[in-house]
Amino acid sequence: MTDYLPAVMAMLGPAQNHYADPAAWDRLHAELGIRLPTDYQTLVDAYAPVQLNGHLYLSHPATDRWNLGDRIRDTARAWSAISWDELDPDEDPRLLFGLTELSFGTRNGLWPIAGTDRGETLFLVAADGPAPWILVEDGEGGWAQHDMNFAEWLYRYLIGEDMAGPNTSAFYPGPVQLCRLPMADGERPEPWTGPYRGM
Q1: Is 75 helix (H, G, I), strand (E, B) or coil?
Q2: Cβ(168)–Cβ(138) below 8 Å
Q3: What is the pLDDT of residue 26?
Q4: Residue 127: pLDDT band with limits 50, 70, 90
Q5: Which SS3 state, helix, strand or coil, does residue 11 take?
Q6: Handedness of CA 67, 169, 10, 53 (dihedral sign)
Q7: d(CA 145, CA 199)
Q8: Domain-located, residue 199
Q9: pLDDT on residue 95
Q10: Which of 22, 83, 154, 155 is a good FRET partner for 176, with 20 to 30 A between their CA atoms?
Q11: Residues 6+ apart with CB under 8 A from 23
């Protein structure tokens, strides 16, 4: 059985840990009222703020720009403003996945933890539960459910599986492309690549 955290880190290359700060995670968890999963924290600390393969963005709780706490709060607020009462049944995540309620950034709600420039939003469900799972909205009203942790989701995303629903693959052969995001005015994105991965 694959251990997905080391497997995905092997694809991304050595951990950078530029902003790793346990106190920043403690502050974020206190503000949110939940604890984000350890595998997610490890990957964010290792590489974020970063763009992966030209699409997927990961933010970090210890930075002013690309701040994870700001992103979670802003995205949850935007999703909370949507009227969910007039959805078609095949677009209603409550009906599709048996959710008793649809809330964002609440104790039992959906937590936006990553997104893409294609409009996809990755939500952590039951963040404080023993087995959190993932919902992905594809940017056009379609939803996909994944009963897995973030490390497995990211691994499968990077090897080209449809992780935001049918026909959503974002596979690029060769090493994973990473891009460090600019942290101050005048800075430019800094691209680099992961190691050879035989793909």
Answers
A1: helix
A2: yes
A3: 97
A4: low
A5: helix
A6: negative
A7: 26
A8: no
A9: 86
A10: 22
A11: none
Picking from 35, 8, 2, 1, the residue whose alpha carbon sits closest to that of residue 151 is 8
- Per the structure, the count of domains in the chain is 1
| Domain membership of residue 96 as a residue range | 4-193
Residue 198 predicted with pLDDT over 80: no
Q: Side chain identity at 115, as an amino acid letter? A: G
116 vs 154: CA distance, rounded Å? 12
Q: Is residue 198 assigned to a domain?
A: no
pLDDT at 122: 97
Q: Which two tokens stand for residue 4?
A: 């997905």
Helices (H), 4-100: 4-12, 22-32, 38-47, 68-80, 93-97
| Torsion sign, CA atoms 23, 129, 116, 153 | positive
pLDDT of residue 145: 94
114: Cα within 13 Å, side-chain hemisphere: 27
Six-digit token string for 42: 């490890």
Q: How confident is the model at residue 173 (pLDDT cuts 50, 70, 90)?
A: confident
Whether residue 77 is contained in a domain is answered as yes
Here the CATH number for the domain that contains residue 148 is: 3.40.1580
* Tens-place pLDDT, residues 34-76: 999 999 999 999 999 999 999 999 999 999 999 999 999 999 9
Q: Report if residue 115 sits inside a domain.
A: yes
